[in-house]
Amino acid sequence: MQQIVQVGRRGLLHVIAALALLVGVPFAPPVSQAIAADAFKIGLILPLTGPFASTGRQIEAACRLYIDQHGDTVAGRKIELIVKDDTGLAPETTKRIAQDLVVQEKVQVLAGFGLTPLALATAPVATEAKVPMIVMAAATSIIPSRSPFIVRSGFSLPQITGPIADWAAKNKIKRVVTLVTDYGPGLDAEKTFVKRFGEAGGIIVESLRTPLRGPDYGPFLQRVRDAKPDALFVFVPSGEGTAVMKQFADRGLASAGIALIGTGDVVDDDILDAIGAPALGVVTSFHYSAAHPSPENKAYVEAFMKANKGMRPNFHSLGGYDGMNLIYEALKKTNGNSDGEKLVEAMKGLSWVSPRGPMTIDPATRDVIQTVYIRKVEMRDGHYWSIEFDKVDAVKDPGT
Amino acid sequence: MIGNFIGVVFDGVAYGSLLFIISIGLSVTMGLMNFVNLAHGAFAMLGGYACVVAMSRMGVPFLATLPLAFVVSAAVGAVLERLLYRRLYKATHLDQVLFSIGLVFIAIAAATYAFGPQQQPVQLPPFLRGQVHVLGMDLGAYRLFLIAVVIGVTLALTWLIERTRFGAQIRASVDNQQAAAGLGVNVDRVFSLTFALGSGLAGLGGGLGIDVLGLEPTFPLKYMVYFLLVVAVGGAGTITGPLIAALILGVFDVAGKYYVPQVGSFIIYVMMIVMLLLFPRGLVGRRT
Amino acid sequence: MSHPARGPARSVGDPTSEAARSVTGLTTQRWSRYEIVFWLLPVVAFFVFPKYLTLGSQILITGLFALSLDLILGYARILSLGQAAFFGVGAYTAGLMAKYGWTEPLSGLVAAAAVATLVGWITSFLVVRGQDLTRLMVTLGIGLMLYEAANQATSITGGVDGLSGVEMGKLFGVFGFGMDGKTAYVYSLCILFVVFCFLRLVVRSPFGLSLRGIREGERRMPAIGASVPRKLIAVYTMGACVAGIAGALLAQTTQFVGIDTLGFPRSAELMIMLVLGGTGYLYGALIGAALFMIMQDYLSNLNPVYWQFWLGLLLVMIVMFARGGVMGGLITLRQRFGKRLP
């Protein structure tokens, strides 16, 4: 089964040395491409593989769509997008890629950032290099406070959680059970909901937390059913919503008169059709629905689906699309000057009408101020959509 | 309260059944063929995608896609066994690990390329949705179905391995290849078929699991721990060992999450370590 | 499981060969010129590739981490899928110390090593029982539980959002950890080298030799008067210590600790790197880590979406054409063509 290896120590080390030389080869710098001297480089760092790959794919597609639609030259500067995969798992990888992009590629803007720890680890790079850092997906409140160069184009979790608590309290929902995944964002959502719902006079019957690695939601939903609340508030990582809603329907919670409410990630537009019937009637608060009734959004959804084999744009895509808009508009304001401080200054206070609705960059916090909608899942033309029926204008991140 | 308890046990058994069905193929390849096939989850994923494609693009009903999942995974397993796996039967376990992890990476990239990174839909037929009343209790229809499938698979496998000529050939080939070959057993063919069987079972499990576990390209890595857990605790190479292990782990996991949700996530790991320390060779001793 | 490695220990037979002498402990701890060349490479890289120092320092740290697994897997045949537990413990110890004001790096490193050693020693009693698959799953279980514990203790560890606000002081009060990565690189290289020298001594000591005896046949060892569990506990604890140092280095050089430092993917990836390089040589760990990370960086730059396909293909090819990882393959090559080489 195994050969007896007859090899002297000297021979072995010979081999090591030869190999070490081989290993050194890929260190060679990549062939530098001929790039116009006035190119404006954007380093887009996203999770394009691994468990969060769908986030990265949505954002990348939206950024490319924006460039296609608005041209690749702004204020005399040619925009060049450099896309990197950070796998979404290890913060040190994201930070390293950001450093490499700044040092080697000399990017003028860093963008992307799928998850909170990845953004937090990279924040010092933005500060030290004085490079604007557009956070397109990560949604913890504290992120923009970690560097004066961070500007957020996505959303913050407390921002979109508050309105559903207020709505529930106003709509004859008195007793609620909360069910969140036991990790940072889940706890933030629970905290915001419990606080706002309590202030509005509601009663939290029970707060359940599911393990991060626990694919079966059955037992938790059984507990909810036994507690007989008016509604169940849910926050789970993107993609897990499917399992929750299926179990919710299967266990007859809906027929027991329990409503399902939550933040919009559980009815992510990317997978809403895949969830199908169990999502019907779910009420959520969120900053974007692909069914948002505006001409801007209609054009956006159409163009996006056309360019991506029918993939429906979700909320993450808007983080990318509006992030690009932010960069373009800032560059116009500085007349093509790519100085980091000037760009961030130009971004502060910018307002525009996005496919998601009106939005503004808060000049004080560099966070996004936007309309949050209350929506309900309905079927239209054979597909499932979150249909907006109420809204709260100009919601700021309330902090945690 | 009693009703609750029975409900929890039922859910646990159903969850355990699912763990069993996706892991049993690994017990076959690891125990009978002594091959550490970490790409087991990739075959499960393949079965899952076969189900989804047949259902959503060809309109095949769900129940009919399950045999299809088995066949597709088994066929791909047989081909890969011929081309690649066969050369590694005599390699060290660590080489096998490296090789099968390589296959997992390839499978993940291929699945992303073919189907995109998002979760795949599965629409169960109406009679498998919702709950049914049994003896005054509401039990999930799909969970009852899972349990039924596991009973069927267990009986069929036991019969196959213990009672048929093919089973005798497997056992002979595993115990002593040379002697088996000398007695006229085509060892190569037996190993091919056994590997195909293991892969097919993984595919079946993948198809059955979509509704509960979801299906996306990182599936093989996401659930690798669970496959290994069931096989390690139960004992590779047997059918009853992983079955008992899966049921115990399933029941304790579900009961833990229901009664003490605060520490729910720890229970399955504590159970695993305790059981491994009590039964280091698996609940039912390994053949090797 | 069968022998995971074919180390040079098997080359006993020709009493005049250098390897045989080293195994029997007769040789001096002399460094061959090939080893010296190997260690000159990272020094040369520092000057030749100044833009790749951050990647370089992370390769060095991962190499150190891989050494910790090689020590227990390659030399004592303890299969572990939970090595990240100690990496993470070291990272959090160093990170927390810096966050709460103790920003001197070297003492942070020592403290992290101490805590990781302690955790390693406590858990070692669970690990030395049982055989390969059992150990694999017990170490995995310990790792997963620590991960959950870190996730629950959000107020201390920051949970999944990670521990931020880690600000390191200057090394010796002079060298700051800046964005160019120079300090991080040199610091990591020095620590790696020091630990490597120590491990090189250990595996060639009588203790190291008795470990090899355990690897080759655990049941026979008590017959010659060696206490197997005690030696396994010692080596496992030592492995934990080295992993803790690696984790602390990562925390200090990136000034951030993510919960993924404790995660299963990190342990699994480590196993891949070590097996890729070849177990039981120490150098295999370093080569595997470097090869894996460089390929990952290179391929993901070529194709950020489907690079895993090529990485997977590479792993499959390596196994198909070189059993026993890169080192194993090179040895086979040398055997086949060795006489023609000078």
Write the layout of secondary structure elements.
The complex is a heterotrimer of chains A (400), B (288) and C (342).
Chain A: H1 9-24, E1 40-46, H2 53-70, E2 73-74, E3 77-85, H3 91-103, E4 109-112, H4 116-129, E5 133-135, E6 150-152, H5 157-170, E7 175-181, H6 184-199, E8 203-210, H7 218-227, E9 231-235, H8 241-250, E10 259-263, H9 272-275, E11 283-286, H10 295-307, H11 315-333, H12 340-347, E12 351-354, E13 357-361, E14 368-380, E15 383-395
Parallel strand pairs in A: 1-3, 1-4, 4-5, 5-6, 7-8, 7-9, 9-10, 10-11
Antiparallel strand pairs in A: 2-3, 11-14, 12-13, 13-14, 14-15
Chain B: H1 2-32, H2 40-58, H3 62-83, H4 93-115, E1 131-134, E2 137-140, H5 141-163, H6 165-175, H7 177-182, H8 187-213, H9 219-222, H10 224-234, H11 240-259, H12 264-278
Helix pairs in contact in B: 1-5, 1-8, 1-10, 1-11, 2-3, 2-8, 3-8, 5-6, 6-8, 10-11, 11-12
Chain C: H1 18-23, H2 33-48, H3 53-74, H4 84-99, H5 105-127, H6 132-152, H7 154-157, H8 182-204, H9 206-216, H10 228-254, H11 264-277, H12 283-302, H13 307-321, H14 325-337
Helix pairs in contact in C: 3-8, 3-10, 3-11, 3-12, 4-5, 4-10, 5-10, 8-10, 9-10, 11-12, 11-14, 12-13
Q: Could you please describe the fold and organization of this structure?
A:
The complex is a heterotrimer of chains A (400), B (288) and C (342). By secondary structure, chain A is α/β, with parallel strands linked by helices. Chain A has helices at 9-24, 53-70, 91-103, 116-129, 157-170, 184-199, 218-227, 241-250, 272-275, 295-307, 315-333, 340-347; strands spanning 40-46, 73-74, 77-85, 109-112, 133-135, 150-152, 175-181, 203-210, 231-235, 259-263, 283-286, 351-354, 357-361, 368-380, 383-395. In chain A, the strands form 2 sheets. In chain A, strands 7, 8, 9, 10, 11, 12, 13, 14 and 15 form a 9-stranded mixed sheet that branches. Chain A has a 6-stranded mixed sheet with strand order 2-3-1-4-5-6, with helices on both faces. In chain A, strand 13 (357-361) and strand 14 (368-380) form a beta hairpin. The longest helix of chain A has 19 residues, at 315-333. Chain A is globular, with a radius of gyration of 24 Å. Chain A starts with 8 loop residues before the first helix and ends in a 5-residue tail after the last strand. Chain B is an all-alpha fold and 288 residues long. Helix content of chain B is 74%, strand content 3%. Chain B has 12 helices and 2 strands; from the N terminus they run ααααββαααααααα. Chain B has helices at 2-32, 40-58, 62-83, 93-115, 141-163, 165-175, 177-182, 187-213, 219-222, 224-234, 240-259, 264-278, and strands spanning 131-134, 137-140. A two-stranded antiparallel sheet of chain B has the order 1-2. In chain B, a hairpin with a 2-residue loop joins strand 1 and strand 2. The longest helix of chain B has 31 residues, at 2-32. The N and C termini of chain B lie far apart (45 Å). The mean pLDDT of chain B is 87. Chain C is built from 14 helices and no strands. Chain C has helices at residues 18-23, 33-48, 53-74, 84-99, 105-127, 132-152, 154-157, 182-204, 206-216, 228-254, 264-277, 283-302, 307-321, 325-337. In chain C, 59% of the residues are buried. Chains B and C meet through helix 4, helix 10 and helix 12 of B and helix 6, helix 11 and helix 13 of C.
